[in-house]
Design a protein that fits this description.
There is one protein chain. The protein is α+β, with helices and mostly antiparallel strands. Helices cover about 30% and strands about 30% of the residues. The protein has nine helices and 15 strands. The chain has a seven-stranded mixed sheet. A hairpin with a 2-residue loop joins strand 10 and strand 11. Helix 2 (about 65-75) crosses helix 3 (about 85-95). The radius of gyration is 20 Å and the shape is globular.
Length: about 290
């Protein structure tokens, strides 16, 4: 697996095996908001949520996600555990205060399969032949309130038992995109397809050449820049705004709709615009 990691605007690299991955990360609000761990076959994306709330309590809001990932790496190195088993054991070992959403993806080259476990609103999708063939679901208790893991002393905590599990068969040439909610709140799946189509190499057949490594870097960078631009665009019809609009419509009652229809209520402004947030993108080519 070969991983190329990018922490914007710096570039890092490490050798790993038969999947080519480019990760681009921009920290626009909190420089430690997103943590990414990768080993030979395991990728963990952890975003510590409710940063301001923890900091008001004097808690390092990133300590929990850092310890959780370190524990995931330690547990994953012990044997052929599933993503769910890795997350469960790592969760039991994590003792610091804090909370985070989390997505673990494990690639099996021998079985040609991606196994994923997710808590919260990080997401992963797979593109094949110009089409989205798989995408994980998100978990929210209510709008903009994602599930998140935390120390058991936090009574409202979600646990690995609440996680969603996915398994998907992949083939050479499949493009995998993982991202924090800051990505998916600001771009649509069609934006990912258009970013891939902008690459002449990715429009062709996968040949395992080094050019594909360069293209994954460029793809991650394109998605990052697009999400960042959309997040600052007050007129952009973002996924985040669409979801907010749906919540507003659901909260309307028959009486409020009647009053509005009679022109007696205050006109409601439709939800619009992007969501300013940290953005992390990780792109992979199955080889």
């Amino acid at each position: 697996m070969h991983f190329t990691s990018t922490t914007w605007p710096w570039w890092l690299a490490s050798q790993m095996g038969s999947v080519r991955v480019s990760e681009t990360r921009a920290h626009r609000l909190n420089p430690l908001a997103v943590h990414v761990l990768w080993t030979r076959s395991l990728c963990v994306l952890a975003w510590h949520a409710n940063t301001g709330g923890w900091e008001r309590l004097g808690v390092d809001s990133g300590a929990y996600s850092r310890e959780l990932m370190a524990n995931c790496e330690e547990v994953g190195a012990m044997g052929n555990a599933s993503c769910a088993q890795i997350l469960s054991k790592a969760f039991q070992r994590t003792e610091v205060e804090g909370s985070c959403t989390c997505l673990l993806a494990k690639y099996s080259a021998t079985e040609g399969r991606l196994d994923v476990v997710s808590v919260g609103d990080c997401s992963m999708l797979v593109v094949r032949d110009g089409k989205v063939v798989f995408k994980t679901e998100v978990q929210e208790h209510a709008w903009n309130q994602p599930y998140q893991l935390s120390h058991p002393a936090f009574n409202l905590a979600d646990t690995p038992e609440d996680a969603l599990e996915f398994s998907f068969s992949v083939i050479p040439g499949d493009i995998v995109v993982l991202g924090s909610d800051g990505l998916w709140d600001n771009i649509w799946d069609t934006d990912v397809l258009e970013a891939i189509a902008a690459s002449e190499t990715m429009r062709g057949s996968f040949d395992g050449s080094d050019q594909w490594q360069n293209e994954t870097q460029e793809l991650a960078q394109r998605l990052l820049e697009l999400a960042a631009a959309h997040s600052l665009d007050d007129a952009y019809a973002s996924p985040f705004a669409q979801e907010q609009e749906g919540e507003l419509r659901q909260s309307e009652t028959f009486l409020t709709r009647l009053i509005d229809g009679m022109g007696l209520g205050k006109p409601r402004v439709a939800a619009i615009g992007g969501k300013i947030d940290d953005v992390t993108v990780l792109c992979a080519i199955i080889g």
